[in-house]
Amino acid sequence: MSPPDHRLPTTIARGLVLAALVGALALAVSQPIVAAGVPIGLGLAVAVGAVDGSDRRVAVGAALLPIVVLAGIATVGLAGTPVAGLSAVVGATLATAVCGVVIGQPTPVALMRTGGAALCASVLAGGSALVAIGIETAGGTQAALVAALWLTGDGISGLLVALVVAAAAIVAVLFVVPPAAVTVPSRYDSYVTSRNALATLVTVATVIAIGGLSILTIGSVLVPALEPVVEAVTGSAAVRGLLAAVTGAALLGVAMAVVARSVWRQTGGRRNAAVAIVAGSLSGVGLPFGAAIGVVGIGTTTVATLFGAAAAVLGVGWLVAWLYEGVVGRSEATNPETAVAAALAAGGVVSGASVDTATLGLETGRAGVATFVPIAAALFAYDVGRYGRTLAREIGSEASRRPQLVRLGWSGGVAAVGVPVGALGMAGATVLAPTLSVPATAGVIVAVAAVVGGTWVLVR
Fold this sequence. Notes:
- It is a single chain.
- By secondary structure, the chain is an all-alpha fold.
- It folds into 2 domains: 10-105 and 333-459, no CATH class; 121-325, no CATH class.
- It is 81% helix and 0% strand.
- It contains 16 helices and no strands.
- It has helices at residues 10-30, 34-50, 55-78, 82-103, 108-138, 141-149, 155-176, 188-222, 227-234, 237-262, 274-294, 300-329, 336-353, 362-394, 401-432, 438-459.
- The longest helix is centred in the middle third of the chain and has 35 residues, at 188-222.
- The mean pLDDT is 78.
- The chain crosses the membrane at residues 12-28, 34-51, 58-78, 84-104, 116-135, 155-177, 198-226, 238-260, 272-298, 304-324, 336-355, 367-384, 405-432, 438-459.
- Keywords: Membrane, Transmembrane, Transmembrane helix.
């Protein structure tokens, strides 16, 4: 006999996945956007699972997290109605909970890294929203790029300032990057010598360039033939673009190095995933932002709204991950099967609340299917999940299949009977509602509930 563990028996887990699939299909009959929420939930589960691995997997998970959040916000925003938006959220929650049933609860380490990635991505998304607002204020992407190239000023003075800033950024990144990131302890002395020599070379080259530009400018006053050369150099967008690219890359390296140094001593093990989280978050926010800005037809106002909302959602996600990490550490977290049941029940309630007709028809039938089938699947998932959790606690995940199949068949049969009963009740309500008074209708509902409840107690 295998020792008890926290994994559900395989047969029970498959039954829960099947129930979730049936409930999702039933919800999609009334709200097809539920299907759009499913890949979002799967992507979120993959991102959380990926950060609990090597640095490469951490970077991939950190990059995937903001992309999934942006896709989810876009899906909810394009839903059109609150009911459709809630249905998309239900689909995403259901998919995430099903992944929890299959692969288990996320570990405290995964939650800690997910929270860090969410916080980093939230800051970057907020910055991207501000950049989008700046682009809108500047008059468009092209105007903003031109303004960025000439940020240090026009003429020879602006070029000299840009040259000094680029050189200072290069020297800063040489001295801020931790030596352990680029060399081994046995070669530290040679690394220091090479770093100092390179910094000296950059400084000397900058001084020579400044001196040459100064001489050229003074010479153009004495020799008018040199004026076109000075104007070509100082007014060249290519020169300014090269200096801006070098400065931006160097400043990015400085930021990464500062993060690496700040967390260098904040780990109890041999690894720290902070650099991988930052690198992944930069890709996960930067690439969608660049694509959104470059796509024709997407206004900068829309981009700013999208990334601003993503910053808020990711900030809330950081808080949730931080709180949930403590809950998981105390072994007080809600089981994934309970989350599956809750998501299915919520979907049924949302679908039922959207019914606004009192006549029998195709639309009412679709609403009935989307209401009763998910609720029945939720009850099935809750009942079977409790049974599977008991097996996992008392026997283990390798429990015998036969009792599991018997319990799945019994609970599935009861749930299947409940669907037509609920459908008949809904049909009866639509028929009797115009003819019975409110007290009479309430009496019929109470009587039916008593009969169904008594039958349930007897068969149990």
